From TrEMBL:
This is Ubiquitin carboxyl-terminal hydrolase MINDY. Residues 50-63 have a biased composition (Basic and acidic residues). The keyword Hydrolase applies. Residues 1-89 form the Deubiquitinating enzyme MINDY-3/4 conserved domain. The keyword Protease applies. It is an enzyme of class 3 (hydrolase). Keywords: Hydrolase, Protease, Thiol protease, Ubl conjugation pathway. Residues 50-72 are annotated as: Disordered. GO terms for biological process: protein K48-linked deubiquitination; proteolysis. GO terms for molecular function: cysteine-type deubiquitinase activity; K48-linked deubiquitinase activity. Its EC number is 3.4.19.12. It comes from Opisthocomus hoazin (Hoatzin). Belongs to the MINDY deubiquitinase family. FAM188 subfamily. InterPro entries: MINDY-3/4_CD, MINY3/4.
């Protein structure tokens, strides 16, 4: 996908061709994001789990607290896979 998030553009893509033809592949998969911005020195590797459960999250935090806010890129991913958990795999979340 070509993404326009927070007035910046980037490419969100996957390398697994099965995501296009096998719905079972959408359970747990990897996506990559690259924006070409100077601040981004490497492609971000994201792991998406579409079968995570909301009750596994920490209930002690208020849903409106800064700890519960999600990066815009995660929210863009959730327009396709609602409720998915996105792991940034040692990359500092941005966007």
């Amino acid at each position: 996908w070509l993404c326009g998030v927070a007035r910046r553009h980037g490419v969100l893509f996957g390398t697994d061709c099965l995501l296009l033809s096998d719905w079972k592949s959408e359970r747990f998969f990897h996506l990559y994001f690259y924006s070409g911005q100077r601040a981004q020195t490497a492609t971000a590797h994201l792991t998406v789990d579409t079968h995570s459960h909301h009750w596994e999250e920490d209930r002690r935090e208020d849903p409106g607290s800064p700890g519960k806010r999600r990066p815009s890129l995660e929210m863009a991913i959730r327009t396709k896979w609602a409720g998915a958990t996105v792991s940034w795999n040692s990359t500092e979340p941005f966007f």
